[in-house]
Amino acid sequence: MLSLPFLSRLYSQSVTVSITKLEHGFWVLEGSDYTTMYLIEGMKKALLIDTGRDIEGLDSLVHRITDKPLIVVLTHAHFDHAGNIGSFPAIWMHPADTVLLQREYRGTINFVNDGDKFDLGDVTIEVSHMPGHTPGSIVLLDKKNGRCFSGDAFGANHVWLQLKPHVPLQIYVQSCSKMEKLMDDGIQKLYCGHYIYAKRPYDKSYITAMRELAEALLNGTAPDAKPYPQKVGCLTPMFVTHGPATIVFDPESLHEDIINKK
């Protein structure tokens, strides 16, 4: 990580934002409310990944970093990643997540699908659909630099799979396998959607641990589950841990997934 080039503090309901330049043309913006945004600048355009929760003046802040035309892409539509879309005239997202938008948006919503690409000039960002956390979760691939921006598709140490609308656990296993293949093919660094928890990119071993844990849940061989301390998404969320990976799940949905698998 490069030294901190500057620190910007914006106040909106006591939320502050710090900006760190990680590499040339690549910044991470971290909200004091544990939200994370990434900014990638190419020769012709810039791309903002997620918008945080509710940060007044986010558009002005981004344009202090880059004067390039800006593309705004949501990894998924949960409020902590899409709460500030109103600061921008247009966004891009997967159509399966429109049901999750919690704020009226008067701008233009453009849809992305698996394999779509954004040409920023000397950098191309590719969309890969990774359902699990939400039906329309995507990751954004910078294959030239071996980077992936995963939102909450694989969590940050732990992934929430207990939320509605429910995505079958077998689909999440497929997403993990797909991500492993991408990492075999050149993606080396996975930047999660809540950078503050890791302060570094994950490697393939993290995704493998997630896949193995999800498969163990389906096969009935997972470690004993424990009650999750927050009742989010369902009345009785549970969690299991395997190495660096933790999965939070709804026992009722898991029961249905196991029956359907058989």
Uncertain runs are 1-12
Percentage of β-strand residues: 25-35%
CATH class category:
Alpha Beta
Do you know the CATH architecture?
A: 4-Layer Sandwich
Q: Biggest sheet, open or closed, and with what strands and sense?
A: 5 strands, mixed
**Corresponding CATH superfamily:** Ribonuclease Z/Hydroxyacylglutathione hydrolase-like
Mean pLDDT, to the nearest integer, reads 93
**Portion of residues within helices:** 10-25%
Between the first and last Cα atoms, what is the distance in angstroms? 47 Å
Instruction: Work out the helix count.
Output: 5
Reading the helices and strands in chain order gives EEEEHEHEEEEEEEHEHEEEH
> Overall 3D geometry?
globular
Number of domains: 1
What is the CATH topology descriptor?
Metallo-beta-lactamase, Chain A
What gyration radius follows from the Cα positions, in whole Å? 18 Å
Please give the order of strands in the largest beta sheet. 1-2-3-4-5
The structural class is alpha/beta
How many E strands?
16
Helices and strands in order:
Layout: E1 17-23, E2 26-31, E3 36-41, E4 46-49, H1 58-65, E5 70-73, H2 79-82, E6 90-93, E7 108-111, E8 117-119, E9 124-129, E10 138-142, E11 147-151, E12 158-160, H3 169-184, E13 189-192, H4 204-219, E14 226-227, E15 238-242, E16 245-249, H5 251-261
Parallel strand pairs: 4-5, 6-7, 11-13, 12-16
Antiparallel strand pairs: 1-2, 2-3, 3-4, 8-9, 9-10, 10-11, 14-15, 15-16
Helix pairs in contact: 3-4
